[in-house]
Amino acid sequence: MQGEHYRKGYFTMSDAIHILAIVTTDADKAPALEKAVQRCAAFSLKEEACKRYEISRDLEKVGRFTVSEIWASQSGFETHLASTHFGELVEQVKSQGAQLDVLKTQPLEPKA
User: Fold this and answer.
1) How many domains does the chain have?
2) How far is the C-alpha of 67 from the C-alpha of 50, rounded, in Å?
3) Is 111 part of any domain?
4) Block means of pLDDT (10 residues each) for the chain, length 112 residues?
5) What pLDDT was estimated at residue 13?
6) 99 CB neighbour count, 10 Å cutoff
7) Residue 65 to residues 35, 49, 58, 82, 93, Cα–Cα distance (Å)
8) DSSP string spanning 59-80?
9) CA 70 to CA 104: how far, in whole Å?
10) b/e map of 39-56 (b: 16 or more CB within 10 Å)?
11) Is 18 part of any domain?
12) Cα–Cα distance, 31 to 12 (Å, whole number)
């Protein structure tokens, strides 16, 4: 079935909000930022609309992290953005002077 590899629970690819965030900070600030992102992830994964919240540490650049998220709906994503734990992460990013790039994406189906 088309889009089956994107399904989890009761949402489909067309309903889901896919986010890829890239956060970059100075190497000496990386441990604190990593802890802040991990804390946010722990709370985010408990949100009903959160279907994926995966953090990765860049192996080639110390201080760069990616966060891959899937939210069941736009309203679920907006609830996340208004959450205390996300607000705390934003404050941590700002206080460190870290660079934050957020991409809101739509997956494409594989074509033969």
Assistant:
1) 1
2) 13
3) no
4) 41 76 96 96 96 96 97 94 95 94 87 78
5) 52
6) 12
7) 11, 23, 6, 22, 12
8) SSSTTEEEEEEEESSHHHHHHH
9) 10
10) ebbebbeebebbbebebe
11) yes
12) 36
Q: Which pair of tokens denotes residue 71?
A: 């939210």
Question: Look-up: residue for tokens 């939210």?
Answer: 71
Q: Which residue has the tokens 């889009």?
A: 3
Q: Which domain, by its residues, includes 53?
A: 4-105
Amino acid at 66: T
Q: What is the domain-level CATH number for residue 77?
A: 3.30.70.100
Could you identify the residue written with the tokens 């739509």? 106
CA separation for the pair 43, 96 (Å, rounded): 21
Q: Quote the tokens at residue 56.
A: 């990765």
User: How confident is the model at residue 41, as a pLDDT?
Assistant: 96
Report the distance separating Cα 109 and Cα 2, nearest Å.
Answer: 7
